[in-house]
Design brief:
This protein is of the alpha/beta class. It contains 18 helices and 27 strands. It starts with a strand and ends with a strand. The relative contact order is 0.11. The structure holds 6-O-phosphono-alpha-D-glucopyranose and zinc ion. The site of 6-O-phosphono-alpha-D-glucopyranose (G6P) has 14 residues, from loops. Its EC number is 5.4.2.2.
């Protein structure tokens, strides 16, 4: 089989963001776009000669084509082997597990996570390092540098590999092993959780609904929940992955998982509801008439971790991204374990997990995970909740009330303003940045500002520093507002406003978060002049 060298030139806009390179699918389908980026990955990681990689993704539109191109490029550059999920499907956490279990040199994940798919949707390519986690900035910046200097790429001229057939194939001298994407992952889950207890829960009549949102967790949830754990058929809905996610938006939040919310707040609600995103790393948790926000969910997992076999010996430490609520900190204080605050992006947890400083991590963006892999893990979080409910034997709503009574409650919400003109968004951030030093000691919207800063993170393990990670304002009354521009959007800019208020008064623990946060909402508007600057008077999405 011939290896061809194709002349190319740098294409603008190939800088990896919060989570790999994400673009409109059509952009990825333009001549050389995918190929330039893949060759730059090879350059950024010091070549693939003799290496073994994992390849898979959430099955979104164009994944099948992209997988064939990547295989031909890996073969052309001398890779020894690629382990591919059947039909190029592997959830992000399962890919992380495969990279680790098989001790490979890393892997490529084809996904744009929770962004819609299809020819008019989004596509993405992400490189994960041998620890199974997203490449750190040192690697992604080498990849980016390579995209700016590229002049040729190598690709093998060959027929498509049959990725539907399990077993070993070859492409030139490179081996391709097509594996069942669920098997290893399901085994890992059975080692972490008490599957006997969970089987007993379901056989005792516990009812749940898992909405796979037409995305990659369908096969995993069918196999684990309905197969291994014996939940009745029909527990998993929208369980067949589709290239455009059934035309939907595979983001597990109350807006996009509305059917599940309606069911859980209706008369015939089951005991427990959950959903996961496009590539299976995010999760949403909802009890009967009780939505559990991601920050609270993380705090609950930490507080109850010892009920789960793998964590029965306690937690080495916990970590959350900066905009995530401080509910976790309250639990860590009680448990007397370290609590780290990192910038947004799962990659920042990697060092803490590798160094054994943190066991559990989570983000407000619906991601929770632990040191079992190096990605957040949607189904793992769902099984964690089930394991807690099986042990505690109380409804979700009661568990939350009990949690807040014990630790206090951090009212929390994120308001998103999407597809804002990029210049206007940066002007807003620049103006606010300029105002920060003058805010402490003044009153804004009737509230006394105690501190204001721009978040920067010094990694305690490798000493690297990440700057400009969000603008924060804290009030005397224990409130906090954070402003950040999203690093995952593909259209204009998305302004995220994270609102938080701590409450320990037992009489005030049952408010609607949007009501409880009214003062913080007013403060956010006044310091940023958001409506005047963007013309937006209400968020497009709030969580
Ligand atoms: C991805 C990353 C997460 C991150 C999220 C939010 O899902 O994997 O770690 O929290 O993006 O990113 P954004 O920059 O859009 O707020
Ligand atoms: Zn995702």
């Amino acid at each position: 089989m011939d290896i061809i060298t194709v002349e190319t030139s740098p294409i603008e806009g190939q800088k990896p963001g919060t989570s790999g390179l994400r673009k409109k699918t059509r952009t990825f389908m333009e001549p050389h776009f995918l190929e330039n980026f893949v060759q730059s990955i090879w350059t950024g990681i010091g070549g693939v000669q003799g290496k073994t990689l994992v390849l898979g993704g959430d099955g979104r539109y164009f994944s099948d084509r992209a997988a064939q191109v990547i295989l031909r490029m890996a073969a052309a550059s001398g890779a020894a082997k690629v382990i591919v999920g059947r039909n190029a499907l592997v959830s992000t956490p399962a890919a992380s597990n495969l990279i680790r279990q098989r001790e490979t040199d890393g892997g490529i994940i084809l996904s744009a996570s929770h962004n819609p798919g299809g020819p008019n949707g989004d596509f993405g390519v992400k490189f994960n390092t041998p620890n199974g986690g997203p490449a750190p900035e040192s690697v992604t910046s080498r990849i980016f540098e390579a995209t700016k200097a590229i002049s040729t790429y190598q690709i093998m001229e060959a027929q498509d590999v049959d990725l539907d057939a399990l077993g070993t194939h070859s492409l030139g001298r490179m081996a391709i092993e097509v594996v069942d994407p669920v098997e290893d992952y399901a085994r890992l889950m059975s080692e972490i959780f008490d599957f006997d207890k969970l089987r007993a829960l379901f056989s005792g009549g516990f009812r749940m609904r898992f909405d796979a949102m037409h995305a990659v967790t369908g096969p995993y949830a069918h196999a684990i929940l309905e197969g291994h754990l014996g939940a009745p058929e029909g527990t998993v809905v929208n369980g067949t992955p589709s290239p455009d996610f059934g035309g939907g938006h595979p983001d597990p939040n109350p807006i996009w998982a509305k059917d599940l919310m309606d069911l859980m707040y209706g008369d015939d609600a089951p005991d427990f509801g959950a959903a996961s995103d496009g590539d299976g790393d995010r999760n949403m948790i909802v009890g009967r008439s009780c939505y559990v926000g991601p920050s609270d969910s993380l705090a609950v997992l930490a507080a109850n971790a010892t009920l789960v076999p793998r964590y029965s010996g306690g937690l080495k430490g916990v970590a959350r991204s900066m905009p995530t609520s401080q509910a976790l900190d309250r639990v860590a204080l009680r448990l007397d374990c370290d609590c780290y605050e990192t910038p947004t992006g799962w990659k920042f947890f990697g060092n803490l997990l590798d160094a054994g400083r943190a066991t559990l991590c989570g983000e407000e963006s619906a991601g929770t995970g632990s040191d079992h892999v190096r990605e957040k893990d949607g189904l793992w979080a769902v099984l964690f909740w089930l394991n807690i409910l099986a042990e505690r034997d109380i409804p979700v709503a009661e568990l939350m009330e009990d949690h807040w009574r014990t630790y206090g409650r951090n009212y929390y919400s994120r308001h998103d303003y999407e597809a804002v003109d990029a210049d206007k968004a940066s002007e807003l951030m620049a103006a606010l940045h300029g105002r920060l030093p003058s805010l402490p000691g003044t009153a804004v919207a009737g509230q006394e500002v105690e501190w204001a800063d721009e978040f920067a993170y010094d990694d305690p393990v490798d000493g690297s520093r990440a700057e400009a990670q969000g603008l924060r304002i804290g009030t005397k009354s224990g409130g906090r507002v954070v402003f950040r521009l999203s690093g995952t959007g593909t259209e204009g800019a998305t302004i995220r406003v994270y609102l938080e208020k701590a409450e320990t008064d037992p009489e005030k623990l049952a408010q609607d978060p949007q009501e409880a946060l009214l003062e913080m909402i007013a403060l956010a508007e006044e310091v940023s002049e958001l409506s005047e600057r963007t013309g937006r008077t209400k968020p497009d999405v709030f969580t």
